[in-house]
Amino acid sequence: MPELPILNAEWHLKNKMPKNPTMDQRIAWHLEHIKHCRCRGLSPKIIEELKKRKIKF
Ligand SMILES: [Zn+2]
Prior knowledge:
Blueprint: H1 9-14, H2 23-36, H3 44-52
The structure holds zinc ion (ZN).
């Protein structure tokens, strides 16, 4: 697997977080984000939500 860039600016430009995102949108965004970029990890809040929803990450 190729190493991910620390900040994948191109991905961020194409994948903006919606304004006032719902929790579903935030989760979907973060799940995609961790596949493409390492500029930040999952926040504890997101991890909690993923566990609640039994989503593997
Ligand atoms: Zn990023």
